[in-house]
Amino acid sequence: MSDKITSAIAPGTVLHGEAYDYKIIKTLGQGSFGITYQAKVEMKGALGTLDSNMYVAVKEFFMKEVNGRSGDTVTSGSTSKGGLFSYYREKFEREARNLGTLKHPNIVRVLEMFIANGTAYYAMEFINGMSLDDTITKSPQGRLSTEQAIRLTKQIGAAVSFMHSRKMLHLDVKPANVMVRADGKAVLIDFGLSKQYDESGQPESSTTVGGGTPGYAPLEQASYRDGHGFPVVMDVYALGATMFKMLSGQRPPEASEILNEGFPESWLLAANTPRHIIRCIEKAMAPLKKDRYQSVDQFVMDLCGKAETTGNEAAGKNEATSFSDEVNVVDARPSDRHEAKRQQPGQQPQGARPQQPRPQPQQEHKKPELTTMNRSTAGNKMKKRRLYICIGFITFIVFAAICNSVQNCQVEKWRQEDSIYTSLVKQPEDPSAANPTGTLYTHDAAGNNFVWTGGVLNDLPDGNGSANYNEGDKDGRKEYYGRMVKGKRETLDGETATLTYINGNKYVGTFANDMLKEGTYTDKENGMSFKGTFKNNAPYNGKWFMLGDGSVYTTVKNGEMQN
């Protein structure tokens, strides 16, 4: 098929819904799984129909690589493609029903879902405005002011928080999926990746979580599998990245870049973003989910609360005051007002401007008079302190001497990092060996514990071997067979490695810097396999195949599904 929209319904065609008829005006756009139209509502009665002045957007389920059209009827081709079409159409219908339950001023409203022409449709409000992406691009500075960004983040956050209170994840929050009305109000749209959970935090369907959009999706989303609770922190990351784009005017770096190179604070400093706002965004976009805000409400309240405390922006004060009231109006869950200790900012990325020390409030403190008694107390405390330091130092020297005396035998070392213990047990070996083998109980940068059997160098996996993640790591990985370099999965030229997941999915190919690089990923659940290159552990350039007959389902270019 051509990249052009050649299979869209012709203008003037009338779709017959359950409650209304819809006359197609024009095509608004087409994605891999649907075509969206602008339509005019027709009121139908027993004796005829009547045009109204109400316009809606109608989304039609239509898979570019699977469907065709015979007249107005949607066709699905071969039997295998027909099964795939039915599978994803059911997901489309579920999306419409879930969206229909969300009554919120910052969420697009759905009028009805109906079946016609061999496929499914749903009609939703037509928003008179433009996307947040276009709003940012067309602003005079190519970015939004701090006041605008806080206001819109608050509105988007209220929508996402409301979804979470209904046990639903959006999973694709980004400027392109937010419309800004003519009056400046934000509306969250496109729930194609959304997922519904029950009250116990278990998913209500077996469909996998989509990989999201590079720059807006956290590390864990690309390989997330159900059974790990209700991960609202994935939407928290996306909301933080959306605010990053609003303030900087630039697409956020991918989560893997932040993990390896640090948060690009300099991008926001260049846009004169206040440092307290930067700290909030940095925490929302933390690569490790345990380091993020654990709810959208925490993020927005901290963002608005800090703006109020510093008094830098009047708009920030107003937003902070009204946020809780707005949440109550839309019946969202109350936020957790007791935030954990603020995370200390990490090191600045290379090239960032050095941070200036914050001026401290100047207060006059009257020094208490030093009496004989408190002189004595202070002296005793100082003596105790010196004694403890000396004991600690002597203990360290003795321990080091004992460790150095152990030779030509099994060596065991323990160290503690972020409450995670690392144990190295080397098997008896030739002392002259450059890269000994052994068993290493360790963890990776994401905090996943695993057992490594193979080459060991400087207390890190280095060389060929195997890694076992016991019950699986946070991203669902179970076993790895191949080479590691300095503790990271890294293959050399001509080598491949195998990564197996708990659910039976498997990747065979090359690795670079602990990430999937080029190879074949087989998804047994969907009955499909991807062959090509990967970026941020997600398909980037290549093709999806059907496992049954080997037919090409779709191609992927720069992370997006194509013809």
Overall pLDDT: 75
In terms of quaternary structure, what is this?
Answer: single chain
Alpha-carbon distance between the two ends: 6 Å
Instruction: Please summarize the sheet with the most strands.
Output: 14 strands, antiparallel
Q: Name the overall outline.
A: globular
- Low-pLDDT parts are 307-378, 396-432
Number of helices: 10
- The CATH superfamily label of the largest domain reads Transferase(Phosphotransferase) domain 1
Q: Mind telling me the C-alpha Rg?
A: 28 Å
CATH A-level architecture of the largest domain: Orthogonal Bundle
- Structural class designation: alpha+beta
- Share in helix: 25-40%
Q: What is the domain total for the residues?
A: 4
- What is the CATH first-level class name of the largest domain? Mainly Alpha
**What's the total count of β strands?**
27
Say what the CATH topology of the largest domain is: Transferase(Phosphotransferase), domain 1
Strand content: 25-35%
What layout of secondary structure does this protein have?
Layout: E1 14-16, E2 21-30, E3 34-44, E4 49-61, E5 68-70, E6 73-75, H1 79-100, E7 110-116, E8 119-125, E9 129-131, H2 132-137, H3 146-165, E10 168-169, E11 178-181, E12 186-188, E13 195-196, H4 233-248, H5 255-261, H6 265-269, H7 275-284, H8 296-310, H9 314-329, H10 372-405, E14 411-417, E15 420-426, E16 437-443, E17 449-457, E18 460-468, E19 477-485, E20 488-489, E21 497-501, E22 506-512, E23 515-523, E24 528-535, E25 538-546, E26 552-557, E27 560-562
Antiparallel strand pairs: 1-2, 2-3, 3-4, 4-8, 5-6, 7-8, 9-11, 10-13, 11-12, 14-15, 15-16, 16-17, 17-18, 18-19, 19-20, 19-21, 21-22, 22-23, 23-24, 24-25, 25-26, 26-27
